[in-house]
Write a structure and sequence with these properties.
Length: 186
């Protein structure tokens, strides 16, 4: 199975992300928008692993959730990987109670290390992928200013109430995401 651990964005917030994507697509029509049903904030991409690890991964998530109450974040800014001026991916960074995201991420990472699973050691930035684009795209300062305007609008809070274990299944060049487990925050 191809596993990842993430915070799912509640359905009541998807309209906000659809608006962000619409504005982005108006400015950059060649951007390929992320399907709204796949909008999430990844904590750890575990990758292709044996099915028998599923209970261990659920245990890691339960440990990561201990003592953490539901919390709120909100869209804060648009950025890109590897960077905003030469993006392959556009994403929305979140603001608000992100210290809990970092705490959960570190706990998950510790659990994965304990299982001797590969860990992404790059700097973790809480983000939600909204679009992809070919790697020959260049973003100029004028367009960057217009992107900043997209997230200057007020957005309702995103209430994070659980951590999920997902399975990613390749399907016709894309991936389908199935929820394998959901662990509620206290």
């Amino acid at each position: 199975m191809r596993f990842f651990i993430a915070l799912e964005i509640p359905s009541e917030n998807l309209a906000s992300f659809q608006d962000i994507q619409k504005d982005l697509h108006t400015l950059i029509p060649q951007a390929r928008l992320t399907n709204l049903e796949k909008i999430h904030l990844t904590l750890a991409f575990v990758g292709e692993q044996e099915d028998y690890l599923k209970p261990d991964l659920i245990s890691i998530i339960k440990d990561a959730a201990k003592g953490i109450a539901s919390f709120e974040v909100a869209p804060g800014y648009i950025d890109g990987f590897p960077n905003l001026h030469n993006p392959e991916v556009f994403w929305v960074g979140v603001k608000g109670d992100i210290d809990k995201i970092f705490l959960i991420r570190e706990r998950v990472k510790d659990g994965l290390e304990y299982l001797n699973l590969p860990i992404d050691d790059r700097r973790f930035i809480p983000h939600i992928t909204i679009a992809k684009i070919n790697n020959h795209f260049k973003l100029d300062r004028k367009l960057e200013a217009k992107l900043e305007q997209i997230t200057s609008k007020p957005f309702g809070p995103i209430k994070i109430t659980s951590i999920k274990l997902f399975e990613s299944i390749p399907s016709g060049g894309f991936h389908k995401h199935n929820t394998l487990a959901e662990i509620k925050l206290s």
